């Protein structure tokens, strides 16, 4: 019975067979570890029709939830419920720039708009952030006004029910996003699902506010409303920074690292001279300057460029176009290019394979085994090889990044029933502090570890 409930709400690993990679390739770093941002849809989700479908239905569910709550707000005057409604509207509004972008991006480029209209998504996201900011200011003003000038709240039962509705709506979105995310192996969509589950707890805070008023503490409602408003301001700051960064052609630092990393897989590239990238809507455009041996003919050089494009597509699923140029100044021979390694991480050995970080030995009451980074036909993956484990074991790798946590669920391996494996590779760089979280029923064991890339051979 318990396992059935866990499967229904996606707390366990039931249904995770669908999460095995189907046609995924390379290092899908765009899919995880970058958090949830209102007004911006993760490009790894937007690049898939299935992901777009999931976002649209999430919008419908949250929009209905917010509409039901808004009706109760007008009748009850609850500030806490008003703030929670604004929060849910902000979540629902995430899908709006995606819809706008897809209706415009499909238009062909013109002589005026040579790159199409992908930038519209950024401006739509900025408008949404401003709307959420204005709504948060209104909610904050109302909460402070109620603290200074308390007013009676009516329909307490309706307010509590509306809070429960908010929780149920967010939980429905969480289950939906997690299930679809596992089907399409999208860590970003799974992360969005867990974010929605956290938002549901915010809605339950409204129920606590109503209970506090019913018990004779009328300030409980505006206090809860003010706390939720502060959380919304945090969302506005995070989202505004992300939207403005993209509109100014800024990209996440890991993207250029990943481009250089992709080049390390291609034979014949002696040096990556320059890398530039920018977002146009949910598509990534990059310019790469590489140096190759000057003795190669045009056909050989073009073959290297084609190989790099294929590698970039595998590493960056959201890639729209890669412009590859050859350095006019030529390059030093490959044997001596290691002396200029300050541009990228440790080089690859012969055959194009990199030196994986040292494995982590797992010793816990829940499981014993080895956690390591491995090469697969689909790219690098985190794999937990298990020698002994308790029944119902689940595992997640949580990597500490700047200001966020990258979560990599370890799922049953399709080729080895003694192993759990991530659906995607961890984001670059592959040197990080992390925690292996082992779970079985109510038991949880956190195992901290470090991953460090060793130095390659020196010439």
From TrEMBL:
Which residues does the UniProt record annotate as the domain Cation efflux protein transmembrane? 57-241
Entry's Gene Ontology molecular function annotations: monoatomic cation transmembrane transporter activity
**UniProt KW Transport keyword:** yes
A GO term from the CC aspect? membrane
Annotated membrane topology: Multi-pass membrane protein
User: What main location does UniProt list?
Assistant: membrane
Q: Where in the cell is it found?
A: Membrane
Q: Where is the signal peptide?
A: none
Query: Where are the bilayer-spanning segments?
Result: 57-75, 123-144, 156-178, 199-217
Under what name is this protein listed?
Probable Co/Zn/Cd cation efflux system protein
